[in-house]
Task: structure prediction
Amino acid sequence: MSKIIAWDIETCPLDTNTFTSRQDRRHSLLVNAELDKNPSTSYEDASRKACSLHPMLGFICCISVAVEDEASLMRAEVHSFVADDPETERQLLIDFRDFVGQFRGMDTWVTFNGKRFDLDWLLHRCLHHGVQAPGNVRMMNRNPYQNQYHADLACVLKSPAGLADLCDHLGIESPKQAMDGSGVAQAVAEGRLDDVAKYCEADVLATLECYLIVKRFAAAAFA
Result:
């Protein structure tokens, strides 16, 4: 029986003291752009945001995966992989790759903005650590116009809105409650990896629920 596999990542900034000269230049450009756009933002917040959004300036601290049988009425199984620094990130990537490697059939992969963000981070961080990236061609499909095998809801609906907005639109409880993306770096710094995993898991379950609703009422959008 085929599976529906929703997944999501959380990211953290690298220590700017470890940056190469090229990373420093990239960091300065991105921070200055953020400060120009939001003058009331502190330098620290602008730096944290810039690093958490660029895979050469940050690392993946959590990947969560929700797996559900297409015909099942049972709640999806959820698995999380966490890292508290760039060194442990390498094992996170290996564990995630090995876990998703078991799915090689006619499965459907589901993300929200995964083709532009999550997959880009996954590839960059695997390359940085010399880790073989997942080999599933369905999961790794980044074509924004092909959503049959990798259903990126941000590409399917093409609306300038986030996951929380889509949840609100569909009447689904928002995963952005006890924490949102801006709080992930602080939680990791404080050693609260369980909180980060719970937040990431809430994201993948919400993404899965959104997908099931959209697929039910607009199945042709995934053709």
Observations:
- The two ends are 20 Å apart (CA to CA).
- The chain has a mean pLDDT of 92.
- The chain has one domain: 3-7+61-222.
- The first helix runs from residue 21 to 37.
